[in-house]
Fold:
Amino acid sequence: MWLVIVYLLFGDAQLVLSTVSDRYENVINERDTLFKKEIDMMLGSDIVLSDSEEKVNEIIIELKHRELDTGLLEPGQFNVSKHFFEYKETIKETNLFKIIKRMPKGAILHAHDIAILSPDYVLGLTYSEKLYVCFEEDDVRFLFSKDIPKDTCGTRWQLLRDARFSSGNVEKFDAELKKYFTIVIDNPEEVYTDINIVWSIFQDYFVRFSGIISYKPVWEKYFYDALKALRDDNIMYLEIRSTLPQLYDLEGNVFDSLATAQSYKDVSDKFVIDYPDFYGVKLIYSPLRLVDYSTVKSYIEIAKNIDNKIPGFLAGFDLVGQEDLGAPIKYFLPQLVEAGKYLKFFFHAGETNWNGMSPDENIFDAIVLGTQRIGHGFALAKHPVLIEEIKKRDIAIEVNVISNAVLGLVKDVRNHPLSSYLAQNLPVVLSCDDPGAWEADPLSHDFYVTFVGVANRHADLKLLKKLALNSLYYSTLKDKDKIIHEFEIRWIRFIDSILKGNY
Amino acid sequence: MWLVIVYLLFGDAQLVLSTVSDRYENVINERDTLFKKEIDMMLGSDIVLSDSEEKVNEIIIELKHRELDTGLLEPGQFNVSKHFFEYKETIKETNLFKIIKRMPKGAILHAHDIAILSPDYVLGLTYSEKLYVCFEEDDVRFLFSKDIPKDTCGTRWQLLRDARFSSGNVEKFDAELKKYFTIVIDNPEEVYTDINIVWSIFQDYFVRFSGIISYKPVWEKYFYDALKALRDDNIMYLEIRSTLPQLYDLEGNVFDSLATAQSYKDVSDKFVIDYPDFYGVKLIYSPLRLVDYSTVKSYIEIAKNIDNKIPGFLAGFDLVGQEDLGAPIKYFLPQLVEAGKYLKFFFHAGETNWNGMSPDENIFDAIVLGTQRIGHGFALAKHPVLIEEIKKRDIAIEVNVISNAVLGLVKDVRNHPLSSYLAQNLPVVLSCDDPGAWEADPLSHDFYVTFVGVANRHADLKLLKKLALNSLYYSTLKDKDKIIHEFEIRWIRFIDSILKGNY
Structure:
């Protein structure tokens, strides 16, 4: 009798236990399956790491996890969710940044030509001979000239050299001057309160030093030194966007856009001779979007002309400027459909917070016009139909995380839609937009911020390598095998050097 | 001869023209197709509007577009991308808000019991008899008592009535007191600088007035009045989350969680008798997550006990508190798998900015545990595999936009991932979380903010109706046909009244 009871009791108990334990096992298995599916889906999951790469992976994962685990407990300590201006220097001191800095990062496919170098570099340019300055209320203009410029000036034109030395305090003078060459300030959250305000200051920044930069010798020097900075940041190739402004010289010559393009071609050729390990430059002609039909038509003629006169140099065509306020792509559909017969497109589209408005609907137009890549695509996350479309057509998204944060689209980069693009294995290329304007390194800061602040905690060296490879794969280079082969050689060298502790 | 030339010229021209125009037509068609696909996919697209609804739709669309179009040009004027505290009163004056206020909104499926009513209401409670107060440095405690409480107090316990009248300035006294019953402040961006800070203040808010609210007569009055506020906001049904704190009375009785649940049941029964157009309440028992295994086990026993003793009242079980710092669901997997045999789950999961960390990976566990709905799911956008899973299993996401903004997850609601959930037609239920804590109406503010700030510009009355219907459809109510039928009746009445200009 007791035996029966004992049997029943324990038999039942065992039954219950085994049922629970089966259920538990099912739940665990299901969780593991979903988790594995997620890991296998994310961008970079197709990369297979060698033993050496696995060792480097352990190093960087440990560094990354330390940042994240501290951040989880003390979010105020998590650098990359703060404003970029606050942490851009701090992170440079980390080992993870140093490793990323040394890492071959492939190409830069989305950058604007005159915002690559730092304000310190631009300040250095103001030491050039024959540079005149006109200080006006809250602003400044520059001009290279043989004699005192005849352009109007609210105060007076003087040689910058004279102004500097008569200031009595060169250090202070230079510090004040430097402020004009950066949008970095101490209190961005108080000053840059909405996107139009920061864009307006950002645009002033470009206008302001146009007098310096569009002086042909400076233009060429800046570009040469920009390429040097890219090479130092372990970039091997560039597709540069330019409005191709008119350049000038001391003789009163004014050069048209074709000449400006030619000047880029010449500099890039010279650079490749000087540094044969650099794979050169292509041009995306990207004039301003806030214009009328006939201007766009003339832009297109300029592009065609460049393509004829400098064969092989032009990658294609784009329109630039704040999308929220500029003309949407659809205004120029007839002109652009026609132009599509001759030109490839690399449209900025969806660099906006809006949803169902002209700037995010630019993505529709970019896609149907057959754009090769999409510049930014910040708003793409709101358009699942377009996500399917870019997957189908294999259109790369040129994502610029720091730019989007600095220019007011997203406060905490953890909310950047790139996190979902990476998770979905979308064709992403990481880029930098205008690193000089916010004092970032050409590409290392964007890689660091993406790796630590945007990507999944489990994303590792495979993601970094994939992002670098994507920048080559989605470039317009014809012979990709060659550059990818060279990339692999450099990558192995990088892995070995990290394993030797060189960072 | 000339004729031939003319023919060739115009013939060619025509050919080119017609080619371009074919290309152009293709591009336009493709654009239209993609656009239509997007419109047809978004949440609410399956709703068919009657003629009357179409007319109301025109009214609300015009009001919404006016806001958006102004915002595009002057983002500083766009209310809902600012901090909620800044615009919560302003928007109440708009016709769009007034219409949404009158709109039947279905049910509230995600709200915490003691954060529904405004600080003004709580201030009113402090006029109750026998309420003692202890003012300490920067904080305050309350207790109902027959005599001076014996609980320790850094200063002294006094009747609140006495403190108020001896203050010499009742208005000032009340204004100071009210600050304890809200997390609304003038300078949130300076004070609430990270998520832990705002959460800590938010949690203090709950602790602080526990002495008032857990006095049984007040507890029941608060809940009755909360139901009234819901009804006034055109809500017809509620699933309330509660930690079921111990209640007390003047006789020294302390009531356990079961008694607290019973008290909710009694109040809700009384309310439904008083207001038969209200469809009642179910309870989601939601104790704090920052506990150990054995405590979770005892929670589960409490839940089972409630379900036995008050049949039909318990909807299910959840764990609450800041996910970033609390124990993740996976810690309690064995206990919860076992509990899943008896209880339905409604887990908070992914109320976080992190990616690949414990709080967002709570979504994995919630899903494999068979959760009925997901509370928040803010991080779901980063987990496409889980998005597919919740679609497959038809698990609703209880989204609380304003809560996520106020509690530090997202600054500009245009970046809230709900925009992509709506675009993808995910099973979304809109809710409010703790509207009293940030002085929002029970659900109208969340509907307004979602409609104007989160949803696509082309989203219209169909979305609003669908969101309201979803809250009924994804409720645990058994007889959904009945409540949906009643909803439809009220909806028609609403449409008619708006057409008569009653807003």
The mean pLDDT of chain A is 94. The CA atoms of residues 213 and 469 of chain A lie 32 Å apart. Chain A touches chain B through 70 residues (CB under 8 Å). The first helix of chain A runs from residue 2 to 41.
